[in-house]
Amino acid sequence: MSAGAGGAQSQPQTGAMTLGVAHSGVVQTINVADGEHVEAGHVLVVLDCRPLAKDIGVRAASLQAAEANYERVLNGPRPEEIAIGEAAVGVAVARAEEARAALDRANAMQVGISITLAQRLVTERDSRVADALLMDARKKLALLQAGSRAEDIAEAKARREQAAAFLEEGNAELDQCTVRAPAAGTVNVLVTLGQYVSTFAPTTLVQLKPDAR
């Protein structure tokens, strides 16, 4: 009888073990010959799972990105970022003061003689805009100085763990494309290069007769 889903089963009449796969695919490599002696863990047969291997590369890159994002959120803003925020507030303060001074000069002028009503309205608008930009710059600086929120850190951590689990799942699936000897013994190869094997129709790839103990 043959092994199901990559397992190995003893054959009472011969003492042999039959080895199958837990993944469907085309036989890409056969690393043993009939009658060859192998040690436990020796790679016997490898299926062509290149699309899965490429997908694992993408998963690994996603994990790296998730880890980098988690570290960024955990550590909070860098001193350089806070310094930039402080500089932005300084610029906004200067512009707001300049706009207020221009508004004070405009208010001191007589409309229709030294300044038009439209010019005064423009000056008032510029002052309001400068004050709003200053408020915005101060709020952004306050957020930088406060650091990351606990919920943002928790979310970044969860995304990192999810990416790690996804990669681990892919590696486990890729490992199913390889048939290894579960024990030391002599092998008998029953599959050929290029042959398609499927978990829906379990096929014995290799028979292994364990060494006598």
Summarize the structure.
With about 210 residues, this protein is an alpha+beta fold. It has helices spanning about 50-75, 80-110, 115-145, 150-175; strands spanning about 10, 15-20, 25-30, 35-40, 45, 180, 185-190, 195, 205-210.
Provide a descriptive summary of the structure in words.
This protein is an alpha+beta fold and about 210 residues long. The protein folds into two domains: about 10-50 and about 175-210, Beta Barrel (OB fold (Dihydrolipoamide Acetyltransferase, E2P)); about 60-165. Helices cover about 55% and strands about 15% of the residues. It is built from four helices and nine strands; from the N terminus they run E-E-E-E-E-H-H-H-H-E-E-E-E. A hairpin with a 4-residue loop joins strand 1 and strand 2. Mean pLDDT is about 90; it is low at about 1-15.
Question: Helical proportion?
Answer: 40-55%
Give the strand tally.
Answer: 9
Major sheet characteristics: 5 strands, antiparallel
Overall shape: rod-shaped
Compute the number of helices: 4
Radius of gyration: 35 Å
Average pLDDT over all residues: 89
Question: What strand line-up does the widest sheet have?
Answer: 1-2-9-7-4
Specify the structural class: alpha+beta
| Stretches with pLDDT under 50, minimum 5 residues | 1-13
Strand content: 15-25%
The end-to-end span amounts to: 23 Å
Number of domains: 2
Order of helices and strands: EEEEEHHHHEEEE
Task: Give a topology summary.
Elements: E1 8-11, E2 16-19, E3 25-30, E4 37-38, E5 43-47, H1 50-75, H2 79-108, H3 117-146, H4 150-175, E6 178-180, E7 185-189, E8 196-197, E9 206-210
Antiparallel strand pairs: 1-2, 2-9, 3-5, 3-8, 4-7, 5-6, 7-9
